[in-house]
Structure formats: structure tokens, C-alpha cells
Amino acid sequence: MSPMSWQKSSYSGNGGNCVEIAPDFVDLLSVRDSKDPSGPVLAFPTDAWHSFVAAVQAGEFGTV
Fold it and tell me: Are residues 28 and 45 in contact, defined by beta-carbon separation less than 8 angstroms?
């Protein structure tokens, strides 16, 4: 199996707390902590990830 093609979040900067995604599979999206590339990976069905992103963009989780 070839290495996954990880992409940093467009929000990523120098402050840490960033995630990377690997959209290498049709129905599955992998997510990891950019500070720990050898660490665990979470996998989400693609449609669930798109719903999550839409909810974040709509402000459904509030702000910090």
C-alpha cells in the first residue's frame, strides 16, 4: 500500500492544534494530529465528515 497523501487544514498556522486529512479513499476520510504524524488516525465516512464540516461552518458548535 502506498503512503497516504496528507493535507494540512487551510486554517493551520504556527499555533499548533492543527489537523491533517487524507482523502485517499472514495468513502473514507482519515484525520490525524499534524504534530503527531506517527500517532493515531481517525477514519470517518466521507458523508459524515462533510456533515461535520458544514455544521462547523454554520456555527452549530459555538465559538471558543
Answer: yes
Q: Partners of 19 in the beta sheet?
A: 33
Residue-wise pLDDT for 2-21, tens only, equals: 578 888 876 656 666 688 88
- Helical segments of 1-64, H only: 46-57
**Pairing outcome for strands 28-33 and 7-8:** unpaired
How many Å apart are CA 26 and CA 57, to the nearest integer? 23
Domain boundaries, the chain: 7-57
Q: How far apart are CA 35 and CA 44, in angstroms?
A: 20
42 in Cβ contact with 33 (< 8 Å): no
pTM: 0.69
